[in-house]
Hints:
binds iron/sulfur cluster, four-stranded parallel sheet, alpha/beta, 20% strand, six-stranded mixed sheet, Rossmann fold, flat
Amino acid sequence: MSSAIPLSIGTTSTLTPVAAGKRVLLAEPRGYCAGVDRAVETVEKALEKHGAPIYVRKEIVHNRHVVETLRERGVIFVDETDEVPEGELVVFSAHGVSPAVHADAAERNLRTIDATCPLVTKVHQEAKRFARDDYDILLIGHEGHEEVEGTAGEAPEHVQLVDGPDAVDKITVRDESKVIWLSQTTLSVDETMETVARLREKFPALQDPPSDDICYATQNRQVAVKAMAPECDLVIVVGSRNSSNSVRLVEVALGAGAKAAHLVDYAREVDPAWLEGVRTVGITSGASVPEILVRGVLDMLAEHGFGEVQPVTTANETLVFALPRELRSSRR
Ligand code: SF4
């Protein structure tokens, strides 16, 4: 796994404004993480191996372009396994599923491939382990998010959802000496730490997770956007509205000093009015966003005079996950 390394911007250690000109700062890392890459490749390989149609429960990753492209290739996206005909193949998305979903699929004789990100699986295992030891588990995350539903479903009788600092007041536990917090993988690091601080005020013996639950990709993208945001009149985050980590990047950019920040799925959604009076535009993308969509935004900006692009690099990522066992022989 990669880790954050000291800030470097392009080949220098300081930001260099282009004289009196317009410029783009391009965050690195951005876009696809190892878990998304694996999940998308899982569906592509399953299509090659088994032929269309194949079924995917929920969006394989939270990105409109990815979902629409796979749909055109013969993927049928469903909300629940009871929409999949008996005996057919269903892929579980990168966000993970609860044991109840696996049980439903088995009952309907569905063939399954699990594309859950291994870093989500790690949080599931933590939930199971601390439930076995009879802890109260305070799961910090967004209500209704698929990942949170999957993790909570591992131990519903032990898990309580904490959706942000303001939710802390209503939390009660059975034994204050056996309380641990876990989290969704794609949260804002700063907001999560605020929630943890509030929880710890209430439960001083609160235990931390054995390792970071907010994943390396979420953290690295937030660090990069924080590095460039103070220089930016505008930050454009490429990503979908239902992508938690993409939405967090907009919030982090604004919190770190960007004068404005917007989320767009496609270049055509960039409003030219946003560019009026702007000298520096920062660009980043969520962990489920293919680079082609960022290229589209860069091309659009170049047409508006923002041809100068400076990378802002805060980490190098090299992590790759193996495909699910059923598809391992066919990795490209
Ligand atoms: S954002 Fe993190 S947890 Fe989610 S798929 Fe990517 S690496 Fe896995």
